[in-house]
Amino acid sequence: MSKATLIVLCALGAVCAHTLADSCSTTDQTKTKTCLDAHFGKYGIDAGKALPKFNDYIATTVKHLEQHGAAGFDLYCEYGAALATCLGALKTSACMKAEGFDAMYGLGKDETRSYATSFPVEAYTCEHKQEAKSLVACTWNASQSHPEPLRPLHDNHFVKYCKEDVRSFICNQQKVALNFSQDGHCEEKLHKC
User: Which domain of life is it from (predicted)?
Assistant: First the structure.
């Protein structure tokens, strides 16, 4: 995964909010935390102690994946698939929303929102892995040119660096984040990418 794509994920996560439509039982919370702890462990993060701030998690993820060169993106998606398999139906449960993360890790509203929102965006990115891989270099250049890379970057910003090819991909990532953060209530109101 490119640093640029991870920065976009972080930015999307940092600006979204959740409403808790259902609850996260103690049993579900234990299972979810076990899966997440194993996932974070693949990046060398001991979540049993505490999770790092989200930006530090992104930096750790980028560093870990860059060590694997061209296979880094595939490895990143493999980790995400293993997490989804472990979670099963819990991947869309209240445990994977900001409130669930806060209950499991106690990071506070903004941090838990960023973590929780990042997972569905990461899943979208991996579902469109070939497209994401083809956009790595230009999205990296685009994110480096932005003075505040952790704020949302509009698809027009990326078009300057990536041409029209990037617009749909970035737009769809943003839609995934917004729909997740609003529990799907915005689906019909969002523009088509």
Answer: Eukaryota
Q: What is the pLDDT of residues 184-193, one digit of tens each?
A: 556 666 666 7
pLDDT of residue 43: 92
- The one-letter code for the residue type at 41 is G
Q: Tell which residue, 29, 30, 50, 31, has the closest CA to residue 40.
A: 50
Taking only the tens place, the pLDDT of each residue in 136-158 is 777 767 766 665 544 455 667 77
Nearest to 178 by CA among 113, 127, 125: 113
Q: How many domains does the chain have?
A: 1
Cβ-contact 40, 167 below 8 angstroms: no
- Please report whether residue 188 resides in a domain: no
Domain annotation covers residue 151: yes
| Residue 192 within a domain | no
In terms of residue numbers, what domain contains 159? 3-181
DSSP structural state of residue 147: S
